[in-house]
């Protein structure tokens, strides 16, 4: 009858509206009819510790572009992030050997953003698994025992710089025009603590991420004649030098603590997020607590930073 038909139509409309509000439809990328943006990176690009789906930064970037009348329908963002990857060809999990690198290489791009280096900073385990490593989050996941950073890059003559340069040279050949794609390097987010339960998180050296990269990535950018400055994700997510109260022989010097997130910080349990969320809002929320990977709010901030850096 008419009443039942009305109810069915109303239910269908309600269902459609609910689905739209919960699951925005993103374009399939890359797309020949749009300006294509490729996001090269590791687990921070892949969206580890986010709620997944649209909460990863490339997907957030796509939503921001779609929600702006001047950019809606014009851009297509592809997530080319693979967890655990290094820019170094002899790292424990080289980006060069992953399916995402094949996707990158088999397509043509208008814009490429590169955020690698976090996994290259693994150095804790030396040549063999350290005795205090109790699980895969410590000893240089995904390959326990391999050290990725045993180098001095102060003179730019080191494997990290050479392989980063090789990646940029390769990307320069993948443009939709003879001039190649616009390339933006990115300074990775900070490592918010250097110890979790007595172990370096993921085997990463905090000094490399928080002190070396903010200076080294701009030098790589300049050496490769890229016209755009690196996108500073490090600062945007709260990074400062000597973030974890100093290091080495000054590790326990209280006056060096210059980030409120570390005051009484406890990264070992989810129950700590409520007391720290004000000052660690980009790394601790109800569903995630991790000193390396942003939470959902952090990925939104990351996407905003990339969008500002792209200056579209």
Summed up:
The protein has a five-stranded parallel β-sheet with strand order 2-1-3-4-5, sandwiched between helices. It has a two-stranded antiparallel ribbon with strand order 6-7. Helices cover 31% and strands 10% of the residues.
Description:
It is a single chain. The chain is of the alpha/beta class and 312 residues long. It has helices spanning 2-22, 43-46, 57-66, 99-105, 159-171, 206-223, 233-236, 273-276, 296-310; strands at 35-41, 75-81, 111-115, 182-187, 231-232, 284-285, 288-289. It has a five-stranded parallel beta sheet, sandwiched between helices. Helix 6 (206-223) links the parallel strand 4 and strand 5 (231-232). The chain starts with a helix and ends with a helix. The model is unreliable at 1-22, 126-142, 244-260 and 269-278 (pLDDT under 50).
Structural class by helix and strand composition: alpha/beta
Strand elements, count: 7
- Provide the low-confidence segments as ranges: 1-22, 126-142, 244-260, 269-278
Q: What strand order characterises the main sheet?
A: 2-1-3-4-5
Helix content: 25-40%
Q: What does the radius of gyration come to?
A: 21 Å
Order of SSEs, N→C?
Answer: HEHHEHEHEHEHHEEH
Mean pLDDT across the residues is 78
End-to-end separation: 54 Å
**Main beta sheet:** 5 strands, parallel
Number of helices: 9
Quaternary:
single chain
Strand content: 5-15%
Please state the overall shape, judged from the principal axes of the Cα atoms.
Answer: globular
């Amino acid at each position: 009858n008419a009443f039942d038909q009305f109810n069915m139509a109303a239910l269908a409309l309600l269902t459609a509206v609910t689905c739209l509000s919960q699951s925005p439809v993103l374009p399939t990328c890359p797309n020949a009819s749009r300006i294509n943006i490729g996001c090269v990176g590791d687990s921070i690009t892949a969206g580890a510790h986010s709620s997944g789906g649209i909460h990863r930064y490339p997907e957030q970037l796509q939503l921001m572009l779609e929600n702006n009348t001047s950019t809606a329908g014009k851009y297509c963002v592809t997530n080319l992030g693979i967890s655990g990857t290094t820019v170094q060809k002899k790292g424990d999990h080289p980006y060069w050997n992953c399916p995402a690198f094949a996707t990158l290489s088999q397509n043509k791009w208008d814009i490429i953003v590169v955020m690698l280096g976090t996994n290259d900073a693994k150095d804790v385990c030396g040549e063999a698994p350290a005795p205090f490593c109790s699980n895969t989050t410590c000893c240089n996941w995904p390959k326990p025992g391999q050290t990725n950073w045993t180098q001095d890059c102060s003179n730019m003559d080191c494997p990290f710089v050479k392989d980063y340069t090789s990646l940029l040279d390769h990307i320069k050949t993948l443009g939709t025009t003879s001039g190649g794609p616009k390339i933006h390097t990115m300074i990775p987010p900070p490592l918010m603590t250097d110890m979790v339960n007595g172990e370096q998180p993921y085997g990463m050296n905090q000094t490399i991420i928080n002190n070396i990269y903010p200076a080294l990535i701009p030098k790589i950018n300049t050496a490769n004649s890229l016209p755009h400055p690196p996108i500073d994700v490090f600062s945007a997510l709260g990074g400062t030098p000597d973030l974890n109260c100093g290091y080495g022989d000054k590790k326990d010097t209280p006056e060096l603590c210059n980030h409120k997130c570390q005051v009484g910080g406890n990264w070992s349990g989810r129950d700590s997020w409520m007391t720290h969320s004000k000052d660690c809002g980009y790394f601790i929320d109800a569903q995630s607590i991790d000193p390396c990977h942003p939470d959902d709010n952090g990925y939104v901030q990351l996407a905003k930073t990339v969008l500002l850096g792209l200056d579209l």
